[in-house]
Amino acid sequence: MSKHELSLVEVTHYTDPDVLDIVKDFHVRGNFASLPEFSERTFVSAVPITQLEKFENKEVLFRPGFSSVVNISPSQNFSCERLPSGIDFCDRNKLSVRTIEKLLVNAFSSPDPTSVRRPYPSGGAQYPIEVFLCRLSENTENWQIGTNVYHYLPLSQALESVATCNTQSLYRSLSGGDSERLGRPHFALVYCVIFEKALFKYRYRGYRMALMEAGSMYQNAGLVADQIGLRNRVWAGFTDSYVAKTMNLDQRTVAPLIVQFFGDVTDDKCLQ
């Protein structure tokens, strides 16, 4: 048994069952069916498509009509702008597993192998969000044959085998069934919440902190991807139960929150 290993039974012992039931009930309200067969019968937004553009990329003023803003000089900005979200992914070029490993260890693990700290914050150091690596393309070098879904262990810096499903089935579930919208990414990361681990210490507040932690994680992964030559896209257009079943996850304990696709895009390396 690893010195970092934790039994969920221990966590469950301190979890309030009423809090767990209420949070799960709220969580499933965000589920919906995302499959081509149901595209005419399911929707998320009630805003007409023709009206959506006027709401995008805007900022809200809390005192509209008053000239109370204080401008900041653009010269203060020293950060690099993140690359646009990838679309039209292309797996024509081989991707080395070493590149994937580089993304995982830099986004989610400490450079100090003796440290238990991670590159992103977590309420009470509980880290209830787990990362799963999903292979979506056969065009990967040095991938261990037989497993296409792994669970990343950030302290051990190791991969735990989870499922052997084929890449086509996996991509169909993660993409919401309509892969033409994305092209062909090489792999994806699926961020999942362990309910008991999120709730046993901070109760309802822990659920809120877990969601913010997931955002910190995929933002960090996106910034690392920019540095190592990968494009990425964060994706919520999937059916939760379909993803969990395909990945061999027990939804009574863990639930997928968000998917992040990685690879080349057609206007980058695929045109070289």
TrEMBL record:
Q: Which GO terms describe its molecular function?
A: oxidoreductase activity
Domain (Nitroreductase) ranges: 92-255
Q: Which CDD domains match?
A: McbC_SagB-like_oxidoreductase
InterPro entries this protein is in?
Answer: Bacteriocin_Proc_Enz, Nitroreductase, Nitroreductase-like, SagB-type_dehydrogenase
PANTHER family the UniProt entry points to: NITROREDUCTASE MJ1384-RELATED
This protein's name? Microcin B17-processing protein McbC
Species of provenance:
Salmonella enterica I
Its organism's taxonomic lineage begins at: Bacteria, Pseudomonadati, Pseudomonadota, Gammaproteobacteria, Enterobacterales
